[in-house]
Task: structure prediction
Amino acid sequence: MKCAIIGGGAAGFFSAVTLAQKNPDADISIYDSSKQFLRKVKISGGGRCNVTHSCFEPKELALHYPRGEKELKGAFYTWQPRDTVDWFEDRGVQIKTEDDGRMFPVSDNSQSIIDCLHRQVVKNGVVLCEGVGVKSLLHEEEQFTLGFSNGRSERFDRVCVATGSMKSSSLTTSLEKLGHTIEPLAPSLFAFDITDERLKELAGISLENVSVRVKSNGKSQTGPILITHRGLSGPAILKLSAWEARQLNESEYQFEIELNWLGGRTETDIQTFFARMRNQKGQQFVKSKLFDELPRRLWEKILSYVKIEGTLQWAQLPKKLEAQLIKELITATFQVRGKTMNKEEFVTCGGIRLKEVNFKKMESRVIPHLYFAGECLDYDGITGGFNFQGAWTTSYIAGTAMAEKQV
Result:
């Protein structure tokens, strides 16, 4: 049985290894137009590789995927983060869990993951065809003919598409001719470009628990935020960009966000707190740092923005200024005028329509023995290891199904 894996990333390697281990007689080749396999693994997680996330309940895990939740929930019952961790640790790569649930190799080096995957494909006799892209995919007489970038072509019994994002894929036309639908592609997991006086000279400041939402639809995301030279980034921003990826793409990245710098604190909470300051510490300057979660430089910037003088005491604070201060603390509005893609977090939503794929086998419902794995499908996760887990899960299922003996 001759099998082709199109794509030399995490999903391509894992599906090939799984296939080889479950059917040692299969003739397997991985094709990639690049001369560097696993290049996205190399730079992911700042070079540490965020392998997966310590969420071991499939139903809960699936909630971290803005697109594909329903399909992936069932798939995670077959292969979930615990299986991923066990797989790598059984092959000598120890995995650790950080406070936020992200899981990395103990080495803090993505090369540990790359070396492990390379060893496994070599050990199992998988042929690596670097620098050989697949330009066309035809299905005829129950076989597949692949046209390669070097001008030659070859026939295969089974094919797995694991190309990563379909954004620059040369197979889009071929897959559409075979009857598949490519859902609209849009960037996911990106930072926000903001030019605003309130953020000037604050680059590098981070906050642990900020709520942020796109003003037009109101669903908030909460988590750490980082102020950058270009605007805002950090997990809360990246999560918001994932959930609203298509809407923000349609807006051409011109939209307003609303921030609650104090996370879950409400207007009533802040009013009560300020009333206590008036009554109990009326002689204290308003500029004195009040909130542990709010860095002093940001607090002073907010006071300056609402024109509260440094010599003003709490007992002297006018109600109008108090209302403006509360507004800036929990409903600050910022205009976003673009996006910034983090090199280690580039993810695309969109791809092969999920209804056209049987997630029990990751097999096409349109063309028998055509399989899909990873980001080429129209699913994507938020930041934190969820996208890699989607790749491990779908490629394991695809590799297992491809390994089934031909009748």
User: Anything to note?
Assistant: The chain has two domains: 2-187+347-402, 190-341. The radius of gyration is 25 Å. Residues 303 and 309 are 8 Å apart (CA to CA). The first strand starts at residue 2 and ends at 6.
